[in-house]
Amino acid sequence: MLFTKSLIFITLFGLTVTLKCWEDVNVNGHKHTDGKSKQNCASGCDYCMKTVSMIGSVESATWGCGCGEENGPAIANACTSKGRFNYGIGEVNCCKGNLCNSAHSKAFPMILISFFSLFSLMFLK
């Protein structure tokens, strides 16, 4: 029985290690498109990001992981802390936590789901 509980804990812990961020591109505004999706970030990546750029009178936005090669080498380490950072033609907004790079996210944190699942398996009989 202890082996089963340990196996479940390891499995649930593995689910919480990888950060998830919204991934999307909107070349005509700063709101999500219908094509938004969840992106698994590289191991060790702690930040999600949203970039907003203004080229002429056209505003565009991208969402994704704030570190790792998922978004290309130009922004591989765009986020090293939480906050808003200006760059030449726009800004990068960095946040920490699953799906934090959208004001519309109502995701229940995976760590809490894992905790309650583990708690119920270990202590409720």
From TrEMBL:
Signal peptide: 1-18
Alphabetic keyword roster: Membrane, Signal, Transmembrane, Transmembrane helix
Top-level taxonomic group: Eukaryota
SUPFAM superfamilies linked: Snake toxin-like
Matching InterPro entries: Snake_toxin-like_sf (IPR045860)
Membrane-spanning ranges: 107-124
UniProt-recorded name of the protein: Uncharacterized protein
Organism: Mesorhabditis belari
